[in-house]
Amino acid sequence: DSAVVSGFLLMFIACIVWLKLVSFAHTNHDIRQLTISGKKVDNAPSTADMDNLQAPTLGSLIYFMMAPTLCYQPSYPRTENVRKGWLIRQIILYLIFTGIQGFIIEQYINPIVVNSQHPLKGGLLNAVETVLRLSLPNVYLWLCMFYCFFHLWLNILAEILRFGDREFYKDWWNAKTIDEVKYKSS
């Protein structure tokens, strides 16, 4: 049902916007308090940085809302220019992998779902068979979605905005412990 998908997408975007606005407000509140008090704190910027701090502008909010990060800073590392050839290559890869996702859904997932019986009408064995038949296409679909969003889309957005910090995820798949997975994936 398209209403479920669009509702999920809107909820996802609303959560991102909320997190970004909270980060923007908290960071600017802390900066304002530091500027007013003039106190020196361990994590506080140096006096040279304090002199360069300005009140937040609409432009800084708009840039932050578009930037591929949830943590607001008054300034971000920026690249010198947009690499057009690299950007076109990433867009082409994004389109290819989006097509692969559509192919997986239409050719593998939809036929299994349409041809399966209702889980409560069939036996437990039929439900288990359907889940097992869906597992492999779903794994490939999730891998493509991860690659498209966390690698291609965020790098495309970062390149267009000349955003310098491109470490959107660490190698969580090489983790040895659960704690390491939590650290590297967030």
Written overview of the protein:
With 186 residues, the protein is mainly α. Helices cover 69% and strands 0% of the residues. The protein has helices at 2-37, 47-52, 58-66, 84-115, 124-161, 178-185. The longest helix has 38 residues, at 124-161. The chain starts with a helix and ends with a helix. The model has no long low-confidence stretch (mean pLDDT 85).
Number of E-state strands: 0
> How many DSSP helices?
6
- What's the helical proportion of residues? 55-70%
| Poorly predicted ranges | none
Mean pLDDT: 85
Spatial shape = elongated
Whole-number total of structural domains: 2
Radius of gyration (Å): 22 Å
Strand content: under 5%
Structural class: mainly alpha
Distance between the termini: 31 Å
State the gist of this model.
Helix content is 69%, strand content 0%. With 186 residues, the chain is mainly α. It folds into two domains: 2-66; 84-174.
Topology:
Elements: H1 2-37, H2 47-52, H3 58-66, H4 84-115, H5 124-161, H6 178-185
Helix pairs in contact: 4-5
Descriptors:
2 domains, single chain, 6 helices, membrane, endoplasmic reticulum, 186 residues, transmembrane, 69% helix, mainly alpha, O-acyltransferase
